[in-house]
Amino acid sequence: MSVLDVRKVSKRFGSLVAVQDVSLTVAKGELRAIIGPNGAGKTTFFNLISGFFQPTSGTIAFDGRDVTAMPAYQRVALGMARTFQITEIFPELSVFENVRIGAEVAAGFRLRPWISGAERAKADRLVGELAHGDQRAAEIAMALALRPHLLLLDEPTAGMGDEETYAITQLVRRLHRDANFTIVLIEHDMRVVFHLADRITVLDQGRLLAEGTSTDIAANEAVQAAYLGKAA
Questions:
Q1: Is 35 within 8 Å of 200 (Cβ atoms)?
Q2: pLDDT tens-digit series, residues 204-228
Q3: CA pair distance 206, 177, nearest whole angstrom
Q4: Angle ∠(175,185,31) on CA atoms, nearest 5
């Protein structure tokens, strides 16, 4: 059974069509990457999935339930959690207190064993004192504390150097392969996408351009033209 089923979703802002007739089906345990050039509609599409925007047309089902008209907080209660391109944390609180905010929303949840001893040692530090990569990890921990059935990650490696990118990539890989999380991520770094994703969805100018495995996408001439800057 699919965890997420998006059917012919569109979003218009006045005369601007940000997303047009995009469909997406994500199976349980799948890691799906969404890529595309700047202005492709990726973040708008994420906002539609997570309930921050209502679609102009089309439907969205989560765990078999129609959530098209459901606001974001109700989708969170059903098990949908999201991180943001610009890290959304409480910098004046400790790591523990940030994660506890999420845990209290899903009362009774305890942190999972994939959090290492080194990460637990950071729990009492203020999040604002952490390096950017560690702040990202704390934000993901906040999302995990919600016990999500679907984890949406918006540009998880944005603004990171190679070492931080590797650490976050390994964290996402563990969540997917070891803990069997269903994950949809937007990502600009093709090394990360090709390393992690089971399947890749490509958007361009608000439309679905291509979909397939990393091998399919790397060989797709339309993707090369639109995203990788190569002539078709």
A1: yes
A2: 999 999 999 999 999 999 998 886 5
A3: 31
A4: 50
